[in-house]
């Protein structure tokens, strides 16, 4: 069954499927990204999230090309996002970096190009201290040239986002940030929405994910009875309840999976409705705990957290 995923409108009129495929993995076997993209498109995913720093754009692009050549989808039906890494923040470096991403993806344009982090480092990890307002000018030029249909940011805090909005000729359409039951992030989400910026949730499964055994002990959402009861009442899994909570907060989400059954599970969230009490259960796990604190960037100018 191919699921039809609802779309959300961005500030420039583009529409983006509210669930997309995340593609970051710490480890992957050769072919795993390509396979996940092909399975995802078969299941109904039309939105795919990657980044130059994931070192998987070639495989993601191959998955897209295979799906198009099999006739599963057209390029126009897909919404593809990639991101600018921190070592290309000088204005003159933005378009060359995007052109390299496009070549790896085998695409003429991306639907969305994001500044991955507000921090800038050189190849050896030294702080370059580049103001992200300079970077934003390069992003605007990428949009003007049609290499990116839309542009946005990721991991920007409210003050940083505000600074960009104040001077932007082309406003950021989205801010991709961590949101999950232990980091509900209501304040930043509200700030984004109040300013016409769509928040996108990454690491949405948070401590439910098998990928984070290091948080053993904090991972009550895997076992807590209250979330289990909500899932059982709706005949869904805990993961589906967590993803549905975001959809009902009008927050697009990009869960990653290499597992075919989970790819389908994460899309099967449009046939039930959480009650206000169910929504409160998911919210009740908030402890402002970051799965992605990026502490390696903590000493850099413009570290956002
Ligand atoms: N902008 C940024 O700085 C930033 C940071 C982090 C992530 N992201 C983006 O957001 C995407 C999602 O974040 P993420 O990959 O960190 O975390 P996530 O999507 O919350 O979790 C992925 C993990 O959960 C497992 N999983 C998937 N579906 C599941 C289900 N239904 N039940 C139980 N476990 C499930 C996956 O395992 P299997 O693969 O084994 O199925 C994988 O280990 C990334 O892939 C990336 O595209 C962006």
The Cα radius of gyration reads 19 Å
Instruction: Output the CATH homologous superfamily.
Output: NADP-dependent oxidoreductase domain
Q: What's the tally of helices?
A: 10
Number of strands: 9
* Mean pLDDT level: 96
Overall 3D geometry?
Answer: globular
Oligomerization? single chain
Q: Cα distance, first to last residue?
A: 41 Å
Strand content: 5-15%
How are helices and strands ordered from N to C?
EEEHEHEHEHEHEHEHHHH
The residue ranges in which pLDDT falls below 50 over 5 or more consecutive positions are none
The fold-level CATH name is TIM Barrel
Strand order of the largest sheet: 3-4-5-6-7-8-9
Total individual domains: 1
- The CATH class name reads Alpha Beta
The distinct ligands, each listed once, are: NADP nicotinamide-adenine-dinucleotide phosphate
Descriptive labels:
305 residues; TIM Barrel; seven-stranded parallel beta sheet; two-stranded antiparallel ribbon; 9 strands; binds NADP nicotinamide-adenine-dinucleotide phosphate
């Amino acid at each position: 069954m191919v699921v039809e995923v609802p779309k959300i409108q961005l500030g420039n009129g583009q529409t983006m499927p509210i669930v997309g495929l995340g593609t970051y993995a710490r480890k992957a076997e050769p072919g795993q990204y390509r396979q996940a993209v092909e399975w995802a498109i078969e299941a109904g995913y039309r939105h795919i999230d990657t980044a130059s720093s994931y070192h998987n754009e070639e495989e993601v692009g191959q998955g897209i090309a295979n799906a198009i050549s099999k006739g599963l989808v057209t390029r126009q039906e897909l919404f593809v996002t990639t991101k600018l890494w921190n070592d290309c923040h000088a204005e003159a470096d933005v378009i060359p970096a995007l052109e390299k991403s496009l070549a790896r993806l085998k695409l003429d344009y991306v639907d969305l190009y994001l500044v991955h982090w507000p921090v800038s480092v050189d190849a050896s990890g030294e702080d370059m201290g580049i103001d992200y307002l300079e970077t934003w000018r390069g992003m605007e030029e990428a949009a003007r040239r049609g290499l990116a249909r839309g542009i946005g940011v990721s991991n920007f805090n409210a003050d940083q986002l505000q600074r960009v909005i104040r001077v932007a000729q082309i406003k950021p359409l989205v801010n991709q940030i961590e949101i999950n039951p232990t980091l509900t992030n209501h304040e930043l989400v509200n700030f984004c929405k109040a300013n016409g910026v769509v928040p996108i949730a990454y690491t949405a499964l948070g401590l439910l994910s098998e990928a984070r055994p290091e948080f053993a002990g904090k991972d009550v959402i895997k076992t807590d009875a209250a979330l289990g009861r909500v899932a059982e009442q709706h005949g869904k899994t805990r993961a589906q309840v967590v993803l549905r909570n975001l959809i009902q907060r009008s927050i697009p989400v990009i869960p990653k999976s290499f597992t075919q059954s989970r790819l389908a599970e994460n899309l099967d969230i449009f046939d039930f409705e959480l009650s206000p009490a169910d929504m409160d259960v998911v919210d009740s796990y908030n402890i402002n705990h970051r799965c992605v604190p990026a502490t390696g960037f903590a000493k850099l100018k413009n570290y956002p957290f």
